Predict the 3D structure of the following.
Amino acid sequence: MALDKIGIAKRIAQEVQDGTFINLGIGIPTLVANFIADDISVVLQSENGLLGIGPFPEEEAVDADLINAGKQTVTTIKGSSLFSSAESFAMIRGGHVDLTILGAMEVSEHGDIANWKIPGKMVKGMGGAMDLVASADNIIVAMQHTSRSGDSKLLKNCSLPITGIHCVKKVVTDLAVLDILPEGGFKLLERAPGVTVEEIQAATEGTLIIEGVIPEMKID
Amino acid sequence: MINKEVRNADEAIHDIANNATLMLGGFGLCGIPENCISALVKKGTKGLTCISNNAGVDDFGIGLMLQTRQVKKMISSYVGENAEFERQLLSGELAVDLIPQGTLAERIRAGGAGIPAFFTPAGYGTEVAEGKEVREFDGKMHLLESWLKADFALVKAWKGDKSGNLVFKGTARNFNPMMAMAGKITIAEVEELVEVGELDPNQVHTPGIYVQRIFQGKDYEKRIEQRTTRIR
């Protein structure tokens, strides 16, 4: 069965390494914070000027002056720091943030990502995504494998205006975990529980590389 | 110290003329100059070019100035929370430049810091790169981006003194410090205006040299876009 959003977030949380600084995008990536193992220590960066995002506040502790990039009220953790947007993106472009997790509308087999615009229909803007994908060494994308109408979102080439090129290293979808190889192509690493390789193949327009037996994801 | 205090938002913005270029601090609705926006709506200044990370929501922040058709052009990074904005944009009534957020922040900082242009990797290979000089540094491609300045910068701080020194709180700092630097005239509205000498110089975020006018704002709503809580 395909994963739900929580399942995708849980699987991505397994990629998080101890002692790293991480920027989480809006949507599924934000959920990842809830599933990071207790025995590892990470610092979450918010592009609007906070290093050390804490959990959502209790009702009486809500502070309008303390939000995350998704405009949700948050708290700070011990040892957190606050700064301007220029400083925040200095951290990001300067390579000080180790991992970026963000959502996408499309990803190509070359690691290109599209997630900011649908011409003539939707204009939200790129926010910090273009800076993040142009800068981070390690980028994981959380997304649905296909659109609501069943079209693949893992493509040979993105059809939508792109956010960045040759940047995505790993994709976790409702169906699979895939690496994007430096030479191009989606290398299938894991299947969602009960999902077959054939189903993943059928849902992937880009080049899918299948080597050996593909294990199922292990998700609590 | 020079006393920069003005009485209120109306006095602070009295000389903002039609077709001016403004910078407005804030991220979402956090740290926005609420009083100055209200005064601009009341004054009815038209044809404004607004440089601001976001465009408010339909009925708050810059959204109020969009409803009254006072904005000719927005320069922003993300405008997803505003249906009226999207409508005006898709219908061609409103011009918009969408700029990667880090590039926007740095262009504003550069404008205030006297750096006419800089190279950044953000946007390389995308439509943001169209018409821009590309140069390779250490094997990676970068775009040349130029500074941004404004006739007026409208910023919001938590505390300020009458000489214009500012202290921000939480994530309400965001774009405010750079915009304060990049305005020909910078107007700061603060929740608490104190006498010169009352702020600890060690704690000042924006030195008063960047601020030309300051006033204590009133009736802050500080609306929350996504009130998200946990159960104890």
